[in-house]
Amino acid sequence: MKITISPSALKGDILAPASKSSMQRACAAALVAAKRSIIYNPGHSNDDKAAMGIITALGAVIEKAHEQITVDSTSFAKVLDTVAKQQEAGEALTINCGESGLSIRMFTPLAALTNKKITITGEGSLVTRPMDFFDEVLPQLGVQVQSNDGKLPLIIQGPLQPKNITIDGSLSSQFLTGLLLAYSVAQIDPAEGKEISIKVSNLKSKPYIDLTLDVMKKFGLRVPENRNYEEFVFDYSKPHPDVERECNTYTVEGDWSGGAFLLVAGAIAGDITVRGLSMASTQADKKITEALMAANAGMAIDAKGIHLHKSELKSFEFDATDCPDLFPPLVALAAYCNGVTSIKGVTRLAHKESNRGLTLQEEFGKMGLRVDLYGDIMHIHGGSGLKGALVHSRHDHRIAMACAVAALRAEGDTTIEESLAVNKSYPDFYDHIKSLGAKVSGGIDWKGALVDN
């Protein structure tokens, strides 16, 4: 599906979308908490839907109401019996993670808490992403694993047994998130002792682990001691927290990852206010505000929201190693900054929905922007303006949004092929920028409505 963005001036205020990082973790925590939970401000992106589908497959019952969902996972403690019955009936339990990298990495250890075979599948680019981590780590925890040469589908059989292990955190912190959630509720072997730890080398995206630990605490789960992000120690001698709590409540945060595109759009083409983004959030992509300040963006933050207006922008240096999802909006921002912007962390981009380093170089190159890659560093030669062009999302939601934002000040129209890739994380994106005055035409939005001027 194609969407065309014409040069536009933005004005108004907008509520940031719900964070899929927060929403998916809330679904996982609601599942393993094995009780009734109410989640307010739930997201409805494709990744959020995948997470809800997974916990439903594992025994949770979800009721949806206006601006909230109720998750009843009291049957999770009996999931072994449920799976056993399905197996006896000749039915295989399959979990489909859609295109969500977080879901596959987080829910696989949780599914491994069961004692029957479970097939874990995915779609799109997820089927090509490496899953060697599970081949290497889960057998150490008593889980049988069969993969497709390190890729999907995975067939696992638990139950997972917490043990003292050391893992590599250089590829993604999401693998650690899944293990932390699994360790929080798994039954331990007394022979392992009362304290069991997960040691981590070269952990990336530490703020996302902060988010995981915060969600675990809010759902009353056992939370490990964080020893400088190098070791996470569970003390099983202490009573399980909040065992008497009848119902958990959790409000999904506003999404700094999606909100970053709105903030950059305001900085290059508007006079807007973005509401719903908490400065107290542990989300890694909150660092977009640091990049905007470094670029001399017209920005002010107060109780009403984050205010952005068009201003003269300058090149900047930024380390995105712990927040690699910021690369696409940062490239859009840097395109309108005078001078050469340097962004560190390119090696984190290879195993996203696309190889984002190369994709950003090629797609923005079509708009006349020079992007150079030097190992872990990206140089963006900005300030010369962009031209409208035919670009392709590469089925990557963040590439589609980055091109759309950059198109707001380009000379001429920009048409984005496979534009509905945004449904993965931010299905309302085109509607939202259109409500601020963006000239958007062509295509069908996620609700099936015609997107036109």
TrEMBL record:
Catalytic reaction(s) noted: 3-phosphoshikimate + phosphoenolpyruvate = 5-O-(1-carboxyvinyl)-3-phosphoshikimate + phosphate
Q: Which GO terms describe its molecular function?
A: 3-phosphoshikimate 1-carboxyvinyltransferase activity
According to the record, the signal peptide region is none
Name the positions where 3-phosphoshikimate binds: K20, S21, R25, S172, S173, Q174, S205, D325, K352
Identify which residues the record assigns to the active site.
D325 (proton acceptor)
Pathways involved: Metabolic intermediate biosynthesis; chorismate biosynthesis; chorismate from D-erythrose 4-phosphate and phosphoenolpyruvate: step 6/7
Lineage: superkingdom:
Bacteria
Which InterPro entries does the record match to this protein?
Enolpyruvate_Tfrase_dom, Enolpyruvate_Tfrase_sf, EPSP_synthase, RNA3'P_cycl/enolpyr_Trfase_a/b
- Localization (cell): Cytoplasm
Where would I find the Enolpyruvate transferase domain in this sequence? Answer: 7-432
* Keyword tags: Amino-acid biosynthesis, Aromatic amino acid biosynthesis, Cytoplasm, Transferase
Q: Which residues bind phosphoenolpyruvate?
A: K20, G101, R129, Q174, R356, R398, K424
Q: Which Pfam families match?
A: EPSP_synthase
Main subcellular location of this protein, as a coarse class: cytoplasm
Q: What class of enzyme is it?
A: transferase
Enzyme Commission number(s): 2.5.1.19
Q: Which HAMAP family has this protein been placed in?
A: EPSP_synth (MF_00210)
How is the subunit organization of this protein annotated in UniProt? Monomer.
Q: What family, per the record? A: Belongs to the EPSP synthase family.
Query: What is known about what this protein does?
Result: Catalyzes the transfer of the enolpyruvyl moiety of phosphoenolpyruvate (PEP) to the 5-hydroxyl of shikimate-3-phosphate (S3P) to produce enolpyruvyl shikimate-3-phosphate and inorganic phosphate.
Protein's name in the database: 3-phosphoshikimate 1-carboxyvinyltransferase
Q: Which organism is it from?
A: Niabella digestorum
